[in-house]
Specification:
279 residues, mainly alpha, 77% helix
Length: 279
C-alpha cells in the first residue's frame, strides 16, 4: 500500500502545484500559499473526523507542527520558483532533492531495499533527471539561477516535511496533518499581509486556488499514509513522481513543449513504478 499511496499522492499534488505555480504568475506567491493552505486546512478539518484515531500522542502532534513549518516554507519557495521560470524544468528539481534526502535517511536507518526495488529507485531518479532537460539554442536561459535555487530550497523543505510525517504512527489518524495546517496557515497569512498588505486575489484565480487546496489536502493524506507504512525510500521515490502531472499540465496549459528526451523520462517513470512497488 505504501507504493499506491505515494504514487496517488504524487500525481494529485503535481496538479495542485501546477495550479499554485500558475496563479503565482499573476499574484504574490505568499497570497497563493495562503489561499491554498487555508482551503487545505478546511478540507483536512472535516476529514480528520472521518478517519479513526485511537491513539494520538504528543510526538505525533509535534511531528505535525514541524511538518507545518517546513511545508509552509517549501510551498512558498516552490510557487515563487514557478513564477520565475519554466515549470516543467523546476518541478523535477524539487522532486529530486525531496526524494534523495529521505531515501538516504531511510537507508542510513537500516532500511533494506531488494535488488528489484533498488533498480527501480535508480530508474526513477534517471526518469526525473531526463524530464528536467531543456533544449539549448545558445540564447539566454528561460529559467534563471534564482528559480533553481528556490526549487532546490523547496525540495529540502519538503524533505523535512516528509521525514516529520514518517515519525507519526497510524493510530494518530489525520491529526498530524491538522496540526500542520494549524501551524502553517497563521504563518503564511501573516507573511502575506506583512509583505503584500493583502490576501486578495483575482476572481479568475480563486477556483484554481480552491481546487489546488483540495488537491493538496487529499495528496497530503496519501503521503502521510505512505510514510507511516514505509519504507521511507519507497515512499520518497514514488512521491517524487509528481512532476509528471505538473509537466504534462504545463505542456497543455502553458504550451511548454516537451523534448523527446523528456518523453523518455516519462516512459522510464512508468517502468520504475512497478519495480519500486514490487515486494
Amino acid at each position: 500500500m505504501t507504493a499506491l499511496f505515494a504514487l496517488a499522492g504524487a500525481l494529485i499534488v503535481g496538479a495542485s502545484d501546477f495550479g499554485g505555480g500558475f496563479a503565482s504568475r499573476s499574484t504574490s506567491a505568499f497570497r497563493v500559499a495562503g489561499w491554498i493552505q487555508a482551503f487545505s486546512a478546511l478540507f483536512i478539518a472535516v476529514a480528520v473526523w472521518l478517519v479513526d484515531a485511537p491513539d494520538v500522542r504528543n510526538a505525533d502532534l509535534l511531528a505535525g507542527a514541524v511538518a507545518g513549518v517546513s511545508g509552509t516554507f517549501s510551498f512558498v519557495a516552490l510557487y515563487a520558483a514557478f513564477a520565475r521560470g519554466q515549470i516543467s524544468r523546476l518541478a523535477p528539481v524539487t522532486a529530486v532533492v525531496g526524494a534523495v534526502v529521505p531515501t538516504v535517511v531511510g537507508v542510513a536507518r537500516g532500511e533494506s531495499l531488494t535488488a528489484v526495488r533498488a533498480l527501480g529507485v535508480v530508474v526513477a531518479l534517471m526518469a526525473i533527471a531526463l524530464v528536467t532537460q531543456e533544449r539549448s539554442d545558445g540564447g539566454p536561459s528561460s529559467t534563471p539561477a534564482s528559480a533553481f535555487a528556490l526549487a532546490t530550497a523547496a525540495g529540502l523543505g519538503f524533505s523535512v516535511f516528509f521525514l516529520a510525517l514518517a515519525e507519526t504512527q497510524q493510530d494518530a489518524g489525520l491529526w498530524p496533518l491538522l496540526v500542520a495546517r494549524c501551524v502553517s496557515v497563521p504563518i503564511v497569512v501573516v507573511l502575506a499581509l506583512r509583505l503584500t498588505g493583502s490576501l486578495s486575489v483575482e476572481r479568475r484565480l480563486r477556483l484554481i486556488l480552491i481546487g489546488a487546496g483540495l488537491g493538496e489536502a487529499i495528496s497530503n493524506v496519501f503521503v502521510l499514509w505512505s510514510y507511516q507504512r514505509g519504507p521511507i525510500a519507497v515512499a520518497a521515490v514514488l512521491g517524487a513522481f509528481y512532476p509528471i502531472s505538473t509537466v504534462l499540465l504545463a505542456r497543455l496549459v502553458l504550451n511548454e513543449r516537451l523534448l523527446n528526451i523528456q518523453w523518455v523520462g516519462v516512459a522510464l517513470a512508468l517502468v520504475a513504478v512497478p519495480l519500486i512497488a514490487a515486494p
